């Protein structure tokens, strides 16, 4: 749509949008110095050191991915802040101190090449199948960010040689960009990247996937799949599952609509389902999850259900899928995972986990795993869907350190749901949880909706309104916030004490816009209905005050990214509820967000500000435009990162500058000069960022 500039609001701080400009960076450095002078003292140093000790702990669970007979892990600690890519065998992994084979030392690579590399993942080439089965995985495409942002350089790596494959010898080496890649075969990859003018979508992502053959320049890559420039992105990948080899392409129209294609007879054939139905292919099965109610063959399948059909029969026109899961008002499907013979469904029931095991060979008969304590998050995933029916089980809670177990499934007719789970690893405790309790409460939002939230605080909490309380939330993109152990929250908030000996209270709100109750819960706060997410969060804040847990002067909130937009709206629309706000890597300027970094890709979530009708509701939750002189705003800390190429740093800069220009007292700003959207590219940076935010909030709420 043509940009509507006729009614463009005046923006006196648009000069701060020059991300790497001399003037803006000088302003950033001045702000950083001012903020650090306020927050960095002896107590801060102790807080930062305590957080870093948690992040660097060598007793953390080294989560692994099985590739053939090896278990791969990426690890950061004090000695290796940028990390190690390493692997071990199963018997070794089970030991307290596994014997790790280091494949790549990212710190050493950064020092040798003079680039502050940040590891961003790997894509392995499936080994060839022979009479004895598949061989060992050897080649991988490593994703390395030069600054912690989303743009990555892709380099081919040989895990046996522990070295990159020399580009002069045909090794793949793709310059840094927002790229997607899949192995087509040993000598070809499917690549989506910045191929030059016209090759990116309006959202700054690749609009085509091309075949790049070994030894060929990227400019000569063969066009394979392309989408319109105003769609979000194009992806094409190769499924190398033995007996089910196929090429699959996805046209991501926006965040919530897509079209999936299969390569048939040299052409792309679309799987005929509505664009808001999630599509998943696994061997001969087609799984479908509608985001809105779907009428198919006279039957209505509700939003958030999971359906299964045999792929070839569905493509041939049969339209009677099996219903594997049907949501109710309390229960939603969060994810699924395959073992060799079973399908695992991870559910939430009032934001507590449940897990179902489905057997396709028995007509999708379902049974429930019993390993899910209340008010905890538990997730089951297959260890290797081509090598047996073992599964990982990860369990965590606000006061329960994470544990990793391994279990095995067998047919229900054997009289048991599986061979049981065996603990493999457990995270250490970073704070004494014996004096705390977890509670779940429900607040009533403005329109009468019940909104759940978790409260973590001292067992003998006195409801006199004087407890320093930190409220967190997200409320967007169907992302669920669930119970999780955090040593940093324990140390930096729960265990801290006020002058009269009070500890902190931590609260997590499960507001609309998230996925805690499935797609309907998310869709309830889309675009023109965005206010419902903010009303939900405000209702939780008010409920905490009404219950005597805290009061305005002792209640703070924090959020990042979309959560930054959330707390930005608390600042501007509900300033009477909060004493302090910590706002990180945020969206705040909803008039220009689509023109900044990857903002265009979020139109489906928020709306299009260049559409006058959309701007009418967008302006009601655009914090940058809602600021008014003379308002009693909470104390505010706004933080971001220069290298964030997803949201970008400029909205945070402009918000802080405008607040200061309006004469708002106690507005503080900090910008990490590297670190990407997470605000930190290693544990040291992450510890400093968390310490700054928590030191600010504690100071503001405990005076």
TrEMBL record:
It holds the Pfam family Peptidase_S9. InterPro entries: AB_hydrolase_fold, Pept_S9A_N, Peptidase_S9_cat, Peptidase_S9A, Prolyl_oligopep/macrocyclase. The keyword Chaperone does not apply. Residues 9-404 form the Peptidase S9A N-terminal domain. Residues 500-701 form the Peptidase S9 prolyl oligopeptidase catalytic domain. The keyword Protease applies. Keywords: Hydrolase, Protease, Serine protease. It comes from the Bacteria. Coiled coil: none annotated. This is Prolyl oligopeptidase family serine peptidase.
